[in-house]
Amino acid sequence: MSELKYLDKKGTFTLDNPDLTSYMYFPLANEAGMMSAITPDLGGDIKLDQNTFLLEPVSSENLHNNKSTRNFWVYVDGKGAWSATGRSAKQQAKLFDDDKEQVKLTAGIMWHKVERQTDEMGLKAELTTFVPYTQDKVELTKVTITNTADTTQKITSTVAIPMYARSASNIRDHRHVTSLLHRTFTIKDGIMIYPTLTFDERGHNKNTVFYGALAKEMVNGKMESPVSFCPVTEEFIGEGGNFENPYYVAKNKPLPYTEGQEVDGYETVAAIRFNDCELKPGESRSYVIALEYGTSKEELESIGNKYIDVDVFDKYLEETKNYWQDKINVSYNSADKNFDNWMHWVNFQPMLRRIYGCSFLPHHDYGKGGRGWRDLWQDCLALLIMEPKQVRQMLIDNFGGVRFDGTNATIIGSKQGEFIADRNNITRVWMDHGAWPYLTTELYMQQTGDVEFLVEENSYFKDPQVCRGEEKDMIWNDEQGNKQLAENNEVYAGTVLEHMLIQHLTAFYDVGEHNHIRLRGADWNDGLDMAAKRGESVAFTALYGGNLKNLAKDIKAYAEKTGNETVLLAKELLILLNVDKTVFDRIDEKKQVLDAYCETVKHTISGEKVNVRCDELCSIIDSMGDWIGEHIRTTEWTTDKDGDGWFNGYYDNSGNAVEGDFPTGIRMMLTGQVFTVMADVATDEQVVAIAKSADKYLYDEAIGGYRLNTDFKEVKTDLGRLFGFAFGHKENGAVFSHMATMYANSLYHRGYAKEGYKVINSLFKHCDNYSKSGIYPGIPEYVSQRGRGMYHYLTGAASWMLLTVLNEMYGVKGEYGALKLKPQLLKEQFENGKASATCMFNGKNITVTYKNDKALDAGQYSVKEIYIDGNKYGDCDTVLKEDVMKLNDTVNIVAILD
């Protein structure tokens, strides 16, 4: 297998023979909603949403099964037909021969180029594809065919792209019937489909979307239109033919349709023929193809006229490259240039997730688009680093999804802050959901110093689900909308602080028989979904505890900055706050507190607010956090026969501890270690022990590092579906990037830089080794048992990796608006004694360069001096907030390590 090589410091890479690796795909998209996936042979698909696919939807297995690609055929007089994308029957048959065609991929952020050369045909093809950064819904490909033979060759060029033009649900649901809706037209520059109706789960509705495939060729410096067409699939491929051996190409027959014809009720192919031409040795001919959406024939033609030109293509390609590079405003300069380039792609991945959601790439074949509750908050982590200006209001709006019982909406609308009641009234409660908004809000306040954010207000979400999913509000109806009402029937609004308190306090009392927070439907690990009755998540109980203690610090900072000694909270919260601490140990009484609160807020709330002293509130929630930490330390530490220990992270639906030394072998899960370390529940001695045990039982260098769990050797139906998966795949024991990255984050947070670096470097080295991972640069959701990166691009791991590398490894972080420099780089990461990071901080574009002239290792140094734009700032490790605000828009900071 070939080696992937970087060509610059911006993630551009090249790769020979990409066609010899299966399951690879590349994202191309824009912020107008155009979403493409493309493979080395130009397979993949194009869509706007679940119901608007221009090319046929593909899952990962379709990538090698389908014969449908964005094909471009060249018929050479006297030699026969050749596919510029490699998708002819003849080329496929020779794929594993020693004399296979030479193929080279070069790609960068949001652009993709494949070069293919055949000695047999004497041709070279270069196919460059991208989606312009504009608001137009179009994908563009430029094809350049070059004669590499010693003699002049006559060629006939044909675009052949099957067009789907309907909902993904129609793959099996009325596939043929929906083709009867097609009204297909040949227009001057290509093929257009205007289905009469949409025919999917939404019902029968009049269609409003036009689909187009248009193309032109460059002849003597001018763009020329095609000469003929064939829009009907069965006609183009011929009886017995297929898309890898289509009749009209194989026989080099003129296509039978001209401009201005209509064919109704058939599967459509954009078969577009150009004039024959003669190419002298070394001479080239270029073509531009546009696959596009519009609201009318005129709009399709207008988009075509705008983009289908070689010079215009090149112009927009460069502008698109620059547009996305400008958005990636975080970069690194270390001794490992491959790591710096790999992180460039990781930094970009959260942007892809905002466009694609968790769907619409071949491995992400579940769901119908959109993002989940966790995604809203974790994607904001990256936004806070890369695009902070738009985050404040986004965070406020997102809090509108919280219910008054501490749970939250799980169906999220297309608009910011829009949450929708489940029409099927399906109860969904993930016990971890209440913890994530605080983590993102905390990062925001530390980055900006905006502790006044705590008293910003928003409404609450309301639907029939009440009492944390235990009951239904039978009085509530659609006419009341989906916002929580007070007794006066007015929409109630509370502070951000109040929202977060409700999320954490209700969880604190929502405990199982071991006094940890109930697992309910699942936690972060969606595969733990079969322990709703007696399951408990010790792991996330630890996180809630850590959050409570940190929130107390934030309230104190708010009081000190503003001088406000009290905060306004809904009167009902006093039920959860005015509880004697002795109740914390008594499970039944805790449940009674929660029941009393949930019953009070079941339908409407009073709307009354009370002033609560900040110091008293801090004392209460801090003591709750302390209690959680002590309870876990006391009850959940387990060891093996050698005395090596770790935390039990879960209880199953039988009420039994999940982790420990079992007769069938060691059972250890990474999640319980991550959050006990991250939340400061684990002591320093326990952190050391956890790292040792994780190395002993979870680490596997061959697949990129730390597995999510050991092999339980059981289909554990009293805990979750994940145990039905084969071990080493997805949530059952794979190297799951998200949790592995959070493990690294937790270790750095506690000052264990070498251990944290091992986690990140192991994952990076595996992903960076193309022959093992089989993926383009970036971090996948997980690594399979055989080492292949799976579910690439759309993973929350990217946000956490960005956060961990910048804030913890490079130590560029906020401290209530001040710039704190606390690097934990190992000496091997410095190049000639220097390492640097560039990022946005409080509206300033800063580059921080660390000078480590004594070649000290992490733990041996600290920042002793800071210089700003060449001038000494001070003998310190922090730039005060008021001084940060005075900095130039672009600033260079040098920090001396000693």
Automatic annotation (TrEMBL):
GO terms for molecular function: carbohydrate binding; glycosyltransferase activity. Residues 323-460, 624-811 form the Glycosyl hydrolase 94 catalytic domain. Keywords: Glycosyltransferase, Transferase. InterPro entries: 6-hairpin_glycosidase_sf (IPR008928), 6hp_glycosidase-like_sf (IPR012341), Gal_mutarotase_sf_dom (IPR011013), GH65_N (IPR037018), GH94_catalytic (IPR033432), GH94_Enzymes (IPR052047), Glyco_hydrolase_94_b-supersand (IPR010383). Residues 111-309 form the Glycosyl hydrolase 94 supersandwich domain. GO terms for biological process: carbohydrate metabolic process. It comes from the Bacteria. The keyword DNA repair does not apply. PANTHER family: CELLOBIONIC ACID PHOSPHORYLASE, CELLOBIONIC ACID PHOSPHORYLASE-RELATED. This is Cellobiose phosphorylase.
